[in-house]
Amino acid sequence: MSTRRTRATRNKKDDELHDLVSKLQALLPSSSSSCNNTRVSASKVLEETCNYIKSLRRKGDKLGERLSELLDSMENNGVDVDILRDFLQQ
To answer: Of 30, 41, 54, 90, which is least surrounded by CB within 10 A?
Structure first.
């Protein structure tokens, strides 16, 4: 009887894990993730997720650098940058 419970518990956990991985996969923009009919390993989905987060971080850093450059150039042109900074922090 305990073997059946153990198996049932394991199956439930496997189903929950598969459900979570499927939800995570659906959030990824990559082409392999858009094929929800194809079962992809959890490790592959996690790898893609990590790569996607790293790319978002790089893009955010680049945007921050570009914004700083723009604000610096605006200061040199006499634009009131403090108003823009306050607006962007909201």
So the answer is: 90
Tokens of 19: 């459900």
Pair 33, 47: CB distance under 8 Å: no
* HEC sequence for the chain: CHHHHHHHHHHHHHHHHHHHHHHHHHHCCCCCCCCCCCCCCHHHHHHHHHHHHHHHHHHHHHHHHHHHHHHHHHHHCCCCHHHHHHHHHC
Q: Let me know: does 52 contact 25? Beta carbons within 8 Å.
A: no
- Kindly report, residue by residue over 17-38, the tens digit of the pLDDT: 999 999 999 999 975 544 555 6
What's the CA gap between 64 and 87, in Å, rounded? 15
